Amino acid sequence: MAKKTVSKRKEYTKDDVKLLKAHSKARTPVAKLTKLMKRSEGSLRQKARTLGVGLGHQR
To answer: pLDDT digit string (tens) for 42-56?
Structure first.
């Protein structure tokens, strides 16, 4: 039988939120941000939406 992978949620810290807002203002591409923060694109977009900030270079 194949092993099932269990996804673990990684909570956003105050520093993560600050970094996300800074990159939002700088219009950093999402692909670059995913590698930098080690989170999925969907996770970053969802968090940015709840914070009310745009994400990516084309807005």
So the answer is: 999 999 999 999 998
Task: Identify which of 57, 20, 54, 58 has the alpha carbon closest to the alpha carbon of residue 37.
Answer: 20
CA distance 24 to 9: 22
How far is 49 from 12, CA to CA, in rounded Å? 14
What pTM, to 2 d.p., does this model score?
0.79
By C-alpha distance, which of 52, 51, 18 is closest to 37?
18
Helices (H) and strands (E) counted in the chain, each on its own, are: 3, 0
| pLDDT digits 0-9 by tens, 22-37 | 999 999 999 999 999 9
The rounded distance, in Å, linking the Cα atoms of 11 and 31 is: 20
